[in-house]
Amino acid sequence: AHVVVWALDSELYTLVVLAGVAVVGVVAGVLARGPAARTGAAAAATVATGGLAIASALSAGFRLEVAAFAAIAVAALSALTAAGLARQAEGRVALGVEVPGWWLAGVGLIMAVSDARLVSLALACSGVLALAVALRPDRRPAAWAGLGLLQFALWLQLAISNVTAPEAYTASLSVAGLIAAWLARRRDPGVSSWVGYGTALALTFLPSAYAAWNDPGLARPLLLGVAAFAATLAGAWARLQAPLILGGAVLVVTAAHEFAPTLAELMGEGPRWLPIALAGAFLLFTGATYEHRLRDLRKIRRLIVRMR
Q1: What global pTM score does this model have?
Q2: Are 307 and 241 in contact (CB under 8 A)?
Q3: Long-range pairs for 83-91 at CB < 8 Å and ≥24 separation?
């Protein structure tokens, strides 16, 4: 560590010393007998390799934001090496390689932060790397980190492209949430649909419904109505409360918002007594079939309560 600090005054010395530390770390990791020494040597070799990659990129004239991908490349190499060591029952040494690799990936993200497009690409690369690590049976939770990084990369890229449609930001989360809820209910059918399906659908339906109320066009309300209708049918078929109620509510609200101006215009062009007559006819019909409607409502309520 002292030699590396002393060598920072010279570009050539920095490259030579970092390369030397990396080689010494690899040799010590192979020859050392104690697991603690091997783990420390592996960590030192990984950090030195990452520093060498960054210094080499900067020495070649690349900008700091571009040199960040050298650190991410070393992180990918460390993940691959750690997987190989883990298969050889070298768990502690594998951690000595893997943990500094993730640290280098974080350093790469920080280095690229001044360029929005490059940091979006760095987030995407780190997300793909995390998903690759999650292929290992003992690293399944890394998939959540990978999905999160990819989601942040998508959001940042959408913001750079001046995309303001809320569906572009929420649709991917809703799809992931629906898949996770389906997998959770396969393992435990007793899980409430509101925990998974309700949250996932609300992430897109609610912002989209709000945007549809202020959208003079027809495309968004039409697509939202189709999606809500599909969710309603799926909820009724699978006997799930969340898709049925949430989809039905969004469908009714969207349809009412779209048809209300047309109905008001028709009422305004017709005779003044027409709204009163229609309201009276509706009340008369409701009163005449009150008991039957009440039984139907109670039956529907029982069916919904039995749903998950």
Answers
A1: 0.77
A2: yes
A3: 83/133, 83/136, 86/136, 86/138, 90/38
